[in-house]
Amino acid sequence: MPAIWPGFTAAMNSWFCGDAEGGEDWEKVGEPTAKKITAEYETAIAAAGIIPYGNVVASGWAKSTMENGWKTSFEMVFNSAKTPPEGIDLQVPNWIPAATGTVLAWAAVQYQPLPPHPPSVAPVPGTSPLTLDPGSAGIMPLASTINDAFHSNLCAAIAPILVTGFIQHLTLVQGIYNGLVPVPGAPPVPTPIPWVGVA
Fold first, then answer.
1. Residue 190, preceding bond cis, omega within 30 degrees?
2. Could you give phi then psi for residue 6, rounded to 5 degrees?
């Protein structure tokens, strides 16, 4: 199964168009919004798996890394808005911590070993697919997309724009599957097989 983004969108639309609408206080709006985004993201990616085989996330996703990144970004936004005389908007740089936290949360993710990745016929016993690159090349594009979302001027547009950024980032996650590859006349050979992308 792929990640379930419609649930994220519905929950965050309700949040952005209701609970968090119009707030100007970091402690009352920014921090709870960071927690909400992270919690709904965690729910959405629970069914995410390696493309195209579907090895589902098993462990290692770092919720606190993502949440702290978003907290930092919202704090930067609120602090820069208070800068005299009328506040400043740093645009994309405000959102680099949020993007970095979202990406680095994938750094230690492991996945279910089944199904095997061709040409292997089974996983190497005791191993799981590993993340080697959490999609680091996606940090700046994701920061830009987050900035676009929060400058959309339409509360119901924020979550769908965020989702496009999240989906794009996940296509950049890379790792290794350790599989047993058949060899004629010999036992299967343990072989590292690269993979790219989670959905």
1. no
2. -60, -35
Q: Cα–Cα distance between 157 and 160 in angstroms, integer?
A: 6
- Strand, coil or helix: 181: strand
Q: How many domains does the chain have?
A: 1
Quote the pTM value.
0.92
Return d(Cα 149, Cα 112) in angstroms, integer: 33
Instruction: Give pLDDT tens digits for 56-67.
Output: 999 999 999 999
Amino acid identity, position 5:
W
Query: Which has the closest alpha carbon to 72: 23, 106, 37?
Result: 37
Query: What is the band of 22 on the pLDDT scale with cuts at 50, 70, 90?
Result: very low
Q: How far apart are CA 66 and CA 26, in angstroms?
A: 18
Range of the domain at 75: 5-196
pLDDT (mean) for 88-114: 95
Cα–Cα dist 68/137, whole Å: 20
- Which residues make Cβ contacts (< 8 Å) with residue 13, sequence separation at least 6? 155, 156, 158, 159
Q: What's the mean pLDDT in 96-106? A: 98
Q: What is the rounded distance in angstroms from the CA atom of residue 110 to the CA atom of residue 53?
A: 14
